[in-house]
């Protein structure tokens, strides 16, 4: 049998209070798309960091192309032909595609950067692998699909033969997912090997040649044949339960309007309207979904609702009160909960312990405060309750938030924001990067809060989630609400077309 592209044997990695990987075995053959599935906290990220030279295993061996190696840094991995495209892109917006691709690996001729040679190499790779990106385009205006292709070109340019893609479809609309999968098939056809990490089991089944599953730090299935396994079976292997589906059952929508936005416009400092004359209502017991390709104003709309950005014109009424010019803290104390899009930048202080993170945004309220004083005991007790109720897997409430996996960080944020009986929840991508078990817990929490009268604005890049979890569904494009669709009948493809302007130009 020919040597595998990558073989990990008996990999074990321990951190204080937790064993991230325990005796993991993984074999990836040359020229295949291999999917690695597992819930958050299962150990996938640690395993990938070991393969990419970011961490050293405590036990076990790494073989690349049949040779046992010790990878001390990403530079070692790149030199061995291992490249990684991270979930959060690492591009410089003010540089061109070409400049981003060659940054740190610039070709030189007569002591100067050989831009002509780099441009020719990028055009050749772009054509060969179906990655159609203009090397002279500025990165700043590129959409997420194009940005992802630039990231793939970066690792190919450095000679990668094995590509690790971490949650590559997390921010793509269906058409962009189709394009990515076409790119992956081109890479495979050219003899490259792809390790594809994903929670989206239908996608895994459609693109992978082989599937491995990791649960609680160890491999529970290796090299499954996608033709012989179902999404339901994969979910059972991952979390020991059936595959959850995003769905609302009986209607709980009342006549009581909790949020009434009328003619809201938000402008950049240069005067450009990024939210343009938006009007929408959310009633108690109603989830209103907002679908849009990233960068079409949904982020600015959320920040205006939370008082982070000023409104140029229009009004925001909450429970009948005009809150258009209220500061963020006053809105929070009035019962507006907020799950931010970027949990690292806006949701957590990664260096602080969990119990301190539980207080963020709620530090003036019980159980975190008693009068003007911080109530440490109350905050600690409630953090333990949230960890138990939302299955936040942690050695304790004193560990820093940065020590948790992304999914467990998100469950902590959701638990924090659902505490204290809020009346409005502004939720931006609440299940992004979350495994099927955590998704089910968050959907259950949203359904229960909706039944209790919570009004919810749900922004998500997961169209199945938007369709399944919305009572009403709007589409935002270039800062304007361009369509209201019926979530009971719309398809992801129809929604994707509306989001990209195919039906609204």
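^ Assign residues to that structure.
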């Amino acid at each position: 049998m020919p040597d595998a592209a990558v073989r990990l044997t008996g990999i074990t990695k321990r951190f204080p209070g937790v064993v991230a990987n325990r005796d993991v075995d993984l074999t990836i053959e040359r020229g295949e798309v291999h999917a690695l599935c597992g819930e958050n906290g299962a150990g996938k990220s640690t395993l990938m960091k070991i393969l990419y030279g970011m961490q050293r295993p405590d036990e076990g061996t790494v073989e690349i192309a049949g040779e046992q190696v010790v990878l001390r840094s990403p530079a070692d991995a790149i030199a061995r032909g291992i490249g990684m495209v991270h979930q959060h892109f690492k591009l410089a917006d003010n540089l061109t595609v070409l400049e981003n691709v060659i940054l740190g690996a610039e070709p030189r001729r007569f002591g100067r950067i050989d831009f002509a040679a780099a441009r020719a190499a990028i055009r050749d790779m772009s054509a060969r692998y179906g990655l159609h990106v203009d090397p002279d385009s500025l990165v700043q205006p590129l959409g997420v699909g194009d940005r992802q292709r630039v990231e793939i070109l970066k690792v190919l340019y450095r000679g990668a033969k094995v590509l690790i893609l971490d949650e590559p479809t997390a921010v793509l609309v269906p058409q962009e997912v189709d394009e990515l999968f076409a790119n992956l098939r081109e890479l495979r056809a050219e003899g490259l090997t792809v390790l594809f990490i994903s929670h989206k089991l239908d996608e895994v089944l459609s693109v992978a040649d082989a599937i491995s599953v990791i649960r609680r730090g160890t491999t529970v299935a290796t090299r499954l044949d996608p033709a012989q396994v179902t999404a339901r079976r994969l979910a059972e292997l991952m979390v020991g339960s059936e595959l959850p589906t995003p769905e609302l059952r009986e209607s709980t929508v009342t006549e009581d309007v909790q949020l009434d936005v009328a003619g809201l416009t938000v402008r950049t400092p240069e005067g450009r309207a990024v939210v343009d004359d938006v009007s929408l209502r959310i009633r108690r017991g109603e989830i209103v979904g907002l679908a849009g390709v990233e960068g079409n104003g949904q982020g600015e709309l959320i920040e205006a609702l939370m008082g982070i950005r000023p409104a140029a014109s229009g009004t925001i009424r909450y429970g009948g009160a005009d809150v258009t010019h209220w500061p963020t803290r006053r809105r929070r104390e009035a019962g507006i909960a907020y799950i931010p899009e970027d949990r690292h930048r806006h949701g957590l202080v990664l260096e602080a312990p969990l119990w301190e993170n539980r207080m963020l945004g709620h530090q003036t309220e019980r159980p975190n405060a008693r009068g003007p004083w911080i109530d440490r005991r109350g905050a600690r007790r409630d953090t333990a309750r949230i960890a138990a109720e939302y299955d936040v897997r942690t050695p304790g409430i004193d560990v820093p938030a940065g020590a948790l996996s992304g999914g467990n960080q998100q469950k902590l944020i959701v638990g924090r924001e659902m505490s204290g009986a809020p009346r409005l929840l502004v939720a931006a991508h609440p299940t992004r990067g979350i495994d099927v078990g955590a998704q089910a817990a968050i959907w259950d929490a949203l359904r229960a809060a909706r039944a209790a009268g919570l009004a919810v604005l749900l922004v998500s890049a997961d169209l199945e989630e938007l369709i399944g979890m919305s009572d009403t569904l709007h589409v935002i494009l270039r800062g304007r609400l361009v369509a209201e669709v019926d979530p009971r009948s719309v398809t992801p493809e129809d929604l994707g077309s509306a989001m990209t302007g195919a039906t609204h130009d």
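The CA atoms of residues 386 and 415 lie 6 Å apart.
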